[in-house]
Write a structure and sequence with these properties.
alpha/beta, 239 residues, 10 helices, 3 domains, five-stranded mixed beta sheet, globular
Amino acid sequence: MKFARYFIRTGLAVIIIMVIAIGVLCYQDGLNPLDAIFPGKLSTESFHVLPNEIEKIDGLERFDRVVVDGNSETVQELYQRVSDEAKKLPDVFIDIFNKSGFKLVISDNVYKYTRKHVPDGFYLGGVTQEHGSDKRIVLFPVQGDRTSLYHEFGHVLVSVYEMEKETLPVIWEHDYKGTVALTGEYAGAGADECWAEAFRFMLQNMDNPTAMAKAEALMPVSYLCFQRFIEYGEEQEAA
């Protein structure tokens, strides 16, 4: 009996240590510990996790899953800016984001989510990450007049619709030069960034006929993809 009790106590201790270790690793990576134990389950729960110092505002109410990681003034300002930009997102893109199990994270801790130190003179506005069923956009403070929200949404669409297989190569072939000319050099970093920058430009300029005419002329494939998403949203609303 003593041996059995010792075995049980030892076994429980090992399990507890493993759970703690998983929790620590997941915290460091910003992951959900349950996903490490039960991988592959699509996140369907809804939550908005904010520090007490940050007051919830309405701009992100359409997102099912939001985490504000940090309570500094910089994070609070970023939260406000992201909320303002999110109000302009068509419902179709929010629906795709939510139904695909993504969550939105707002933080100023770049190293926690990327394990990288950003060199002086550079900044990282955001990343789109997938760790099993834990899928997220992480947005960081940026310099300039916009966040990386729209750009990262472009990456979400690539993931959800597997655009890298057929669509991105065509975009890269036909839109590369025009996208760089219209949005800047970063669009030339690769096919995925080319699309993300084209998508960002069109989201920002949806109500600007002149800018959209330039998009159609210089980024014809990206423009057609974007319009198809908008049409899909209109079809869903009419159904």
